[in-house]
């Protein structure tokens, strides 16, 4: 948790002082690349886990159901909060 | 759409490589993931730090920000409570405990395995991994259908790290601090809520 915050804060400080540099404009592409890399590694750790692979059909279905219900529950709650409290803010 | 397919392709490639033992055994993906994550966070920090409009936006909406993690927590608990009646062998509180991982799969599945056994622990792992993947892949659609906060709400505890880059791209950099505060607050709630719901 602290290393996570340290990385972010270091990035903010560097970005703030380097905001006029041309290299800063390429961060978007770097971010996309890192996302792909992270998802690949996420796939590797799923593929390496025998327990998940063996019981993926039954256990997985339950997990996905709970996941969808909880995610959509919070999405709908946030939709209400957004319309009620945030809508007048500029896009 | 092309971007989403590339992302799914990366994930599936990882699963297949590891499942068919084509990925070197001794090679620890976890530590690589950590370094990729650090690099990612640094890049997100750079894009935030080089943006000037951020400070003004933050000053304008500070008190309301706390409503975002609150609605995520309440919505998740309600959704996982309701769906438990459609699933055999999973009680409402067990389902809510799984939901209360908010995508923080490593911590919540360890907690739940300890309190409730390996099966529910595995359900928690799949469920929360799925939440993170869902939040990553669906962010643009959720944004279009349910507004600017929806990708943040879906990300749950992961909006401080793994889903933060996607959120900054979809919702805009102005919302990165909302997402970070949201991730931080939801993150902190995970051990408390999971423990409470398992003991109930």
Automatic annotation (TrEMBL), chain A:
TM region positions: 30-47, 59-82
GO function terms (MF aspect): L-lysine efflux transmembrane transporter activity
UniProt keywords, alphabetically: Membrane, Transmembrane, Transmembrane helix
InterPro entries to which the protein is assigned, alphabetical: LysO
Protein name: Lysine exporter LysO family protein
Organism: Crenobacter caeni
From TrEMBL, chain B:
Molecular function GO labels: L-lysine efflux transmembrane transporter activity
Alphabetized InterPro entries for the sequence: LysO
Keyword vocabulary terms for this entry: Membrane, Transmembrane, Transmembrane helix
The keyword Transmembrane belongs to this UniProt entry's keyword annotation: yes
Membrane-traversing stretches: 34-54, 66-87, 93-112, 133-155, 175-199
UniProt keyword Membrane, yes or no: yes
A GO CC term attached to the entry: plasma membrane
Source organism superkingdom: Bacteria
PANTHER family in the record: LYSINE EXPORTER LYSO (PTHR35804)
Protein's UniProt name: Lysine exporter LysO family protein
Species in which this protein is naturally found: Crenobacter caeni
Taxonomic lineage of the native organism: Bacteria, Pseudomonadati, Pseudomonadota, Betaproteobacteria, Neisseriales
């Amino acid at each position: 948790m602290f290393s996570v915050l340290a990385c972010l804060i270091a990035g903010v400080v560097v970005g703030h002082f380097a905001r006029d540099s041309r290299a800063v404009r390429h961060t978007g592409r770097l971010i996309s690349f890192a996302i792909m890399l992270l998802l690949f590694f996420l796939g590797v750790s799923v593929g390496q886990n025998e327990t998940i692979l063996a019981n993926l059909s039954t256990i997985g279905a339950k997990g996905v159901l709970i996941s969808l219900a909880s995610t959509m529950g919070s999405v709908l709650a946030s939709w209400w909060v957004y319309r009620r409290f945030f809508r007048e803010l500029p896009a | 759409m092309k971007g989403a397919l590339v992302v799914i392709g990366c994930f599936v490639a990882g699963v297949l490589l590891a499942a068919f033992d084509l990925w070197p055994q001794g090679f620890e993906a976890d530590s690589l993931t950590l370094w990729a994550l650090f690099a990612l966070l640094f890049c997100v920090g750079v894009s935030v730090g080089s943006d000037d409009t951020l400070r003004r936006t933050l000053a304008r909406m500070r008190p309301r920000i706390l409503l975002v993690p609150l609605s995520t927590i309440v919505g998740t608990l309600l959704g996982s409570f309701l769906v438990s009646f459609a699933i055999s062998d999973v009680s409402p509180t067990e389902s809510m405990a799984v939901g209360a991982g908010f995508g923080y799969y490593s911590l919540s599945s360890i907690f739940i395995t300890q309190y409730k056994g390996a099966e529910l622990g595995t359900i928690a792992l799949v469920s929360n991994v799925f939440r993170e993947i869902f939040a990553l892949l669906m962010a643009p659609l959720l944004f279009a259908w349910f507004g600017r906060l929806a990708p943040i709400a879906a990300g749950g505890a992961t909006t401080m790290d793994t889903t933060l880059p996607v959120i900054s791209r979809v919702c805009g950099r102005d919302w990165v601090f909302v997402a970070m505060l949201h991730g931080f607050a939801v993150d902190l709630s995970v051990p408390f809520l999971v423990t409470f719901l398992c003991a109930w």
